[in-house]
Design a protein that fits this description.
alpha+beta
């Protein structure tokens, strides 16, 4: 890991801190998601941007809050997130739909406060986080290799039976769970009927 990637990570954590503190103060219902949430939970992902999951009706307040902190905001054509960029160009994704399902208040309520970049922020619960990573897997985005080390680092924090049950309809996501079992990263799962998420 060269010094450049350290600088990149530092810039991202600085942006994470500013945006997270602002959203927290404004009372936005949000939680850290994506690679930064994996990082907060002890994994070592490559950090490219900051991902926050939030309840859709709080999006306007979140955008207003970040704009007041000097972020430039943009609504991309995708209908599941909005974007904000700080002065350095670091990207913050405000995601209100994960794997084609709306982010719910219940999901945000399950988030756990974890100290990240010297600030306590709500971080998606580990089970929700892993589901949000693997449920969208498809033939076009089926990179098991980059997910393995992240999931391995968090495996003891995750309810794998729940993961298996939620992702059962997806051949790509359920095969990833089987792969974890075959590699003895997790114990064999039992798939119950309750596969609802979030």
């Amino acid at each position: 890991m060269g010094s450049h990637s350290h600088e990149v990570t530092d810039a991202i954590l600085e942006t994470l801190k500013r945006a997270g503190a602002g959203l927290k103060e404004a009372g936005v219902r949000f939680a850290l998601a994506g690679g930064c949430a994996g990082y907060a939970r002890g994994a070592a992902p490559s950090l490219h941007d900051v991902d926050f999951a939030l309840v859709e009706e709080d999006v306007p307040l979140a955008l207003k809050t970040l704009e007041s902190l000097g972020f430039r905001t943009a609504k991309p054509p995708e209908d599941w997130l909005v974007k904000a960029f700080d002065e350095e160009g670091v990207l913050v994704d405000l995601i209100f739909s994960l794997a084609d399902r709306p982010v719910t208040e219940a999901m945000i309520a399950r988030a756990q406060p974890i100290n990240t970049a010297a600030l306590s922020l709500p971080v998606l619960e580990a089970t929700d986080l892993v589901i949000s990573w693997i449920l969208p897997l498809s033939e076009h985005t089926c990179d098991y290799g980059s997910l393995l080390p992240m999931v391995r680092a968090m495996r003891e924090q995750v309810d794998w039976d729940r993961v298996a049950s939620v992702v059962a309809p997806s051949p790509y996501a359920s095969t990833f769970v089987t792969l974890l079992e075959r590699l003895h990263i997790i114990a064999p799962t039992t798939t119950g009927p309750d596969g609802t998420w979030p």
